[in-house]
# Entry
Amino acid sequence: MSPLQIQAFDAPLGAEVIGLDLARPLADQAFVRIHRAHLDHHVLVFRDQRITPAQQIAFSRRFGPLQIHVLHQFQLAGFEEVLVVSNIKDEHGRPIGLGDAGVYWHSDLSYKAHPSLGSMLHAQELPETGGDTLFANMHMAWDTLPAPLRAATAGLKAEHTYLAKYAELQKRSPWRPDLSDEQKAQVRPVVHPVVRTHPETGRKALFVSEHFTTRLVGVPEDESAALLRELFAHSVRPEHLYRHAWQPHDMVFWDNRSLMHLAAGCPDDQRRKLYRTTIEGDVPY
Ligand code: OGA
Ligand code: MN
# Structure
C-alpha cells in the first residue's frame, strides 16, 4: 500500500487521508499522523473504507471513550455505540434510524456536560441526489467576528439543551419518539462558555449553535436572542464552510470542538444510511 498522505482540501477546513485501510490494525505511527491531521484540518475523509461496525468502533476508541446516544431506539442492533442515521423505514413502516439528524447547525452532544470530541460517519447507502453534509469552521468564526460582537460575547456562557428544538422536530418527523423520564434525565440543560479553548491546540472557537443553544446566561432575553442570532449568522458565512459530497464507503471524522455541521438533506424517496460513532470530549473551558 502507498504511504500515508494527508491532502488538504481547497476549503477552509478538511483533508483527505490517502493510503490507509481502516480494516487493518492502525500502527501507532499512523495513529499519530491521523491525530495530528485531525487537529490541523478538523475534518478527515477516508475514501472507500470497507469496514464493519466493530472496526469503526475500534478505530473510534483510539481517540477516546465512546458516547451512547440518548435515542437508544436508533442504535444499530448489537452495537449500542453506533447510531443509525437514516431516512429508511422497515417493512412495518418504522424508521430504522434517526432520519432528520442534523437538520439544524450543531456540534454533536453540545447539550452534555462532556460534549463530543469528534464524530465519525461511515456511509452505508447514499441517495442519487443531495445528502451532503456541511461543516463550519468555528475557529475562523471566532477569529473573524467583528470587534463589537467579540466584546459583547467574550466571557459569556450559554445554555445548551437537547430539548431546544425537539417539539419542532417531532412536528416535521412524527415518528420521533417521546422521551421517557429516564431519557429526559440524561439531557438536562447544561451551561458552556460561548467561546471555548480547544484543549489540544489552544485555539479559541465559538461554541453556540442554532440547534442546541437556547440562551446566554445572565443576559436579558431579547438581547440574548439577538446576539445569538448574530453569532449563528456569522458562524455559517460561506467562507467558513466545507461541503462534503458523500461517495460510497466514505468514512468522515470531524472535530466537534472546532466545527459545527449540518445535514443538507435529500429527497424523501431516496434512501440514505450512515453509521455514527461519537467520541467523548472534555468539559469545555
Ligand atoms: C450526525 C449528523 C449529518 C448528516 O450524524 O451527527 O449531524 O448529513 N449528520 O447526516
Ligand atoms: Mn450531528
